[in-house]
Design goal:
- Chain A is an all-alpha fold.
- Chain A contains 15 helices and two strands.
- Chain A folds into two domains: 18-139, no CATH class; 157-318, no CATH class.
- Helices cover 60% and strands 1% of the residues of chain A.
- The longest helix of chain A has 25 residues, at 42-66.
- Chain B is globular.
- Chain B has a six-stranded mixed beta sheet with strand order 1-14-13-17-15-16. In chain B, strands 2-8-7-4 form a four-stranded antiparallel beta sheet, with no helix packed on it. A four-stranded parallel beta sheet of chain B has the order 11-10-9-12, sandwiched between helices.
- Helix content of chain B is 29%, strand content 20%.
- By secondary structure, chain B is an alpha/beta fold.
- Chain B folds into three domains: 24-101 and 283-359, Ubiquitin-like (UB roll) (Roll); 124-280, Rossmann fold (3-Layer(aba) Sandwich), CATH 3.40.50.11540; 373-443, no CATH class.
- The chains are: A mainly alpha, B alpha/beta.
- At the A-B interface, α1 of A face β15, β16, α13 and α14 of B.
């Protein structure tokens, strides 16, 4: 018999690990990823491989040579950042731009704050927004969803959100605009031009439900995010249906589902208490609609999440969990 | 019908009640007994015997003179060999009476028969006095001297006596076996406690993973007016005093004692010990100890004399020591890892748990990923991730504001942490610093 271990209680562990959580997220993203391969073809595969590969490579190099710590590549967090970055860019983005995006995401947004768990902003979104501002042309030329899967389609066009926003600005009637975009069912299922991960709201929803089932995320952020989008855009729509598009359109287009389930719920950059999470989700939803309706960009999910990331420390301080014995009721 | 449980946090670790079907066995009297003078919460007892003196079973060895202290009696008969510091199950050296056993001679006034004594002859104050004199402490593990609970402060009344039959710690089964085998004695004990507290209501809370114990007590309790049995949903740490009161009645305010909401809580083992003390005049000199764990060939429940070396229990239970990487006094969530197997069984030893090699070491520590799971499971509604950091930084005032002293050290946060962070280690450090700060403040 060797020497016995002596350590403080508890002496059992539930077995949950960062690795399990992170790879769980990756599994949840797989259906949407495969759909993007199907709709956007080789380009999507190339973007995904480059983004994931370079994100993991940068994490490895920075941990090993700059931070001089043992690299923990297999915790899966760099893979998620790479995958999310790929989900947020068009499938025809040049390789070198993707690599720059991964460097900003991992190097600037994550490792410069100290690595896993220390970053205040969602790394993939920082990378995405950096690219959007630096390379606006490449970042907004969206390949149209191919009629023949697996064929790289050279035709580019605006996203449904872009079409509608531009149309409203030019005073076109709402009914005409709706004829220019795919039907709601098509957009929900996958006929949705745009970034890789925006292609199918339905498959993102499936991934989200999987994460809820595995208890990787809780319902608070998705529900308050979706709820505030529906309520806020619904109020605008009821005021003037000619000027403001109906809530359903907001739900199935752009990066909304991606943001709801995969970006806003990032545990590192979202509040830690249920109350804080509800406020956070509602804030993201309202900002998203404000940007979509009145902002310069047609899509506002990324900016909305990054803005709310910034107030997370305050939300954590303001919304404490309900302490035991705080609300003592007689009876 | 939804089963009762506490309202905040909680986890459900694998129950692993391997020894649940093992009947309580009488364990052999050791050759030498080591009886520490501090087996309870509070001030150590003052030794009353001298080296070389002959003692009988049940004879007073040490007197608990302070308000929060407990008397200690000889668990064996024989000669006092030494009075010296010995390492006990907490890992500290504590003044102990070492007795070389000769025969098994009991004090004459102790009733050793198995006859059930139902009639309660003593008055309220006599009962409390007897509980005090017999050295009864809480048998659930916290070992709080019981008589203190029965001295109800002026102006307070007790509405409910709550009996803790939860046994929420995985593996442990000593309370379970007492409820099955000594149910009637235990219920008489509960009646005695009710009399002492002047209350006509007692609730026994039992998690519903022990249906046989619930059925047994429900059947027996029909003859004991005022005692009701409440099955509870299996949820750790339901055996925590405040969690159990919450499950059955209501929440106790922060920093307050159960008496504040008209409750007194005691363990089923304590009820049994009180029965023996009051009806049989028997001091607390033995207790039921579970010996269990994956490397244990014969998971058992033994009735063991206090002072028996833990190593003897392990030898008798057919354990594979090669497969064992850690040995714990108590359950896996709140028990203490032993530094020596020569440590004796004391009043608080509810179980000896052997942990297999693969599970003996902690999981590797990673960065906090701010998932908030520790906050979700904390049964006191605290934020372990935050407390851990500020405790480490020595921010004692902030720790106090964040209610670090409310922490019951149940370990749910560490159990659930995906990054394997030593949250509770840091919180314990913080609690000790904040406790020191508060004591200094009240001195001024």
């Amino acid at each position: 018999m060797g020497l016995l271990t002596v350590s403080g209680s508890p002496h059992v562990h539930g077995g949950l690990s960062v690795k399990k959580l992170m790879w769980g997220v990756v599994i949840a993203m797989l259906p949407a990823m495969l759909a993007s391969f199907f709709y956007f073809g080789i380009g999507a595969i190339k973007v995904t491989l480059v983004a994931v590969g370079s994100a993991m490579l940068f994490e490895y190099l920075i941990t090993k040579f700059i931070l001089k710590q043992p690299p923990q590549l297999m915790d899966g967090s760099a893979a998620i950042t790479g995958l999310l970055l790929a989900f947020n860019v068009p499938s025809n983005l040049p390789v070198w731009i993707i690599v720059i995006g991964a460097l900003v995401a991992i190097g600037v947004a994550k490792m410069s704050f100290g690595g896993l768990g220390k970053n205040p902003f969602n790394p993939a979104l920082v990378g995405r927004v950096f690219l959007l501002i630096s390379f606006p042309v490449q970042m907004t030329s969206w390949p149209v969803v191919g009629k023949f899967p697996m064929v790289l389609d050279a035709v580019t066009g605006a996203t449904p959100l872009g079409i509608v926003k531009e149309g409203i600005k030019n005073g076109e009637p709402m009914a005409d605009l709706m004829n220019q975009v795919p039907s709601y069912t098509e957009m929900f299922m996958g006929q949705n031009g745009g970034s890789l991960g925006e292609v199918s709201a339905f498959l993102l929803l499936i991934g989200g439900i999987y994460m809820l089932y595995r208890k990787i995320i809780t319902w608070h952020i998705p529900v308050s995010f979706l709820g505030s989008v529906i309520v806020f855009s619904g109020i605008l729509w009821l005021i003037n249906p000619e000027q403001y598009v109906n809530p359903l359109f907001h739900l199935v287009t752009g990066g909304l589902m991606l943001g709801v389930f995969f970006m806003a719920t990032d545990m590192v950059t979202s509040p830690m208490t249920p109350k804080g999470q509800l406020i956070f989700g509602a804030g993201v939803g309202i900002l998203t609609i404000i940007i979509r309706v009145w902002g310069a960009y047609p899509e506002g999910v990324s900016f909305a999440i990054l803005l709310m990331n910034a107030v997370v420390p305050h939300l954590n301080n303001l919304f404490k969990p309900k302490r035991f014995g705080e609300e003592v009721s007689n009876g | 019908m939804g089963l009762l449980t506490f309202k905040i946090g909680g986890i459900h670790p694998p129950e692993n009640k391997m020894s649940a079907s093992a009947a309580i066995e009488e364990f052999a009297i050791p050759k030498q007994a080591v009886v520490p003078l501090a087996q309870h919460l509070g001030v150590p007892a003052k030794v009353q015997v001298k080296r070389g003196e002959m003692v009988k079973v049940g004879q007073l060895l040490a007197k608990g003179e302070a308000f929060i202290s407990a008397d200690i009696h000889s668990p064996v008969s024989g000669k006092v060999f030494k009075i010296e510091p010995r390492v006990d199950s907490t890992g500290f050296r504590k003044e102990s009476v070492v007795i070389n056993v000769e025969g098994d001679e009991w004090l004459e006034n102790i009733d050793r028969s198995d006859d059930l004594v139902k009639e309660i002859k003593l008055s309220e104050s006599e009962i409390v006095k007897r509980i005090h004199e017999m050295g009864i402490v809480g048998m659930g593990g916290a070992t709080f001297p019981s008589h203190v609970k029965y001295m109800v402060p002026q102006g307070k009344t007790v509405d409910y006596l709550i009996i803790n039959g939860v046994e929420c710690e995985p593996y442990l089964t000593s309370d379970h076996r007492i409820m099955l085998e000594k149910g009637e004695e235990m219920l008489i004990g509960v009646s005695i406690m009710m009399k002492a507290l002047k209350t006509d209501k007692a609730i026994i809370g039992i998690e519903n993973n022990k249906p046989d114990a619930i059925a047994n007590l429900e059947k027996l309790a029909a003859n004991y007016p005022g005692i009701s049995i409440k099955p509870l949903k299996v949820q750790y740490p339901q055996g925590g005093e405040k969690q159990l009161i919450d499950a059955l009645i209501r929440q106790v305010p922060s920093g307050k004692l159960p008496i504040e909401v008209g409750c007194v809580v005691n363990n089923v083992g304590t009820a049994y010990a009180i029965y023996e003390a009051v009806q049989k005049n028997k001091p607390l000199i033995e207790r039921v100890v579970t010996v269990t764990g994956k490397p244990v060939g014969k998971p058992s429940n033994y009735k063991v004399r206090i002072g028996t070396p833990i190593t003897e229990l392990i030898e008798k239970s057919d354990c594979s020591m090669d497969a064992t990487g850690k040995i714990i006094n108590g359950g896996p969530m709140m028990g203490k890892a032993l530094v020596t197997l020569d440590a004796p069984v004391t009043k608080g030893t509810s179980g000896i748990l052997l942990i297999e090699n693969e599970k003996a070491k902690r999981v590797p520590i990673m960065n906090c990923i701010r998932c908030g799971k520790c906050t979700t499971v904390c049964p006191m509604g605290l934020e372990p991730h935050l407390l851990s950091i500020i405790a480490r930084q020595g921010e004692n005032e902030q720790c106090e504001d964040e209610r670090i002293m409310d922490c019951i050290e149940c370990g749910s946060c560490v159990y659930t942490c995906p990054s394997g962070r030593p949250l509770l280690d840091n919180i314990r450090l913080g609690k000790s610093n904040v406790g020191f700060m508060i004591r200094n403040r009240s001195k001024k």
